[in-house]
Design brief:
Length: 244
Amino acid sequence: VICRDAVEASEQVAREIIDLIRKRSEESKPVVLGLATGSTPLLLYKRLIQAHRDEGLSFKNVITFNLDEYYGLEREHPESYWKFMHDQLFDHIDIPAENINLPDGRVPRDEVFAYCQNYEKQIEEAGGLDIQILGIGRTGHIGFNEPGSSEDSLTRMVTLDHLTRKDAARDFQGENAVPRNAITMGIGTILKAEKIYLMAWGQAKAEIISKAVEAEPTGVLPASFLQLHKNATFYIDRAAASEL
Ligand code: GLP
C-alpha cells in the first residue's frame, strides 16, 4: 500500500489495530500485538495514544510482545527499547504492566538460550501474535534478524551488522557505544503472526524496500521472507516506494 505520507499510512495501520481491539473487547477476548521500535512506528503509537485519550479505547485486554532489545543495556538506559516503548506508548495508555513483554537485555549469557525459548513459549501461551508491526533496517533486517538469518529462526541472541551499528550510532554516543549483540524474535517467530504490517518511510529505505518486495526470498535479505506469509502488507510512503 503506497500512501501519500507517513501520517496517512500510520493512520491506516492504527485503524486496523483499533478495530481489532474494539472487536475483541466486545467478545471479552485478548488481542496479542507484536511491537517494533525505531522512528518508523512513532506516528502509529501517537495515534494509538490519541485513540485511548480521546476515543475511550482501552488497552486492558491487549498483550504485547516486543521484537527485540539490545543486549547488555539496563532498562533505564536512554537507548534501551524498554525505555523507548514506555516513553512512546505504554506510559500513556491503560495497558496492565503484566501484559507487557520485551526481551530482557540483562539476562546472563549462559541463561540466554533458555530465556529465549521461554519467550517463544509465552507468545504461544498468549494465543500467538494477532498482528505484528515491523520497521525495516537498511541491511534488510526485521527485528534484529540480520542478513544470514534463516526462515525458521526463533528468538535468540544475534550479532549486529556493521551497517546497523553505524545507523544506531546517531542515537548512542558514537558507534563504539552501540551494543554488539541483541536478543530478537526470529523470522520464524514473526512469520507465525496472523497478520504482518511492515512500515517504511523516506528515500533511504527505497532500495531495501524494492529488494524485499521484488527479489527472491533469501536469507541475505531477511525482510524478503515476508513474501512467504499469507497476510503481510507493506505500508510505505511515496519516497520509500520510489525504486519499486
Ligand atoms: C532498529 C530496530 C528495527 C527497526 C530499525 C529501523 O534496527 N531493531 O526494529 O526497524 O531500527 O529503524 P527506523 O525505524 O528508525 O528507521
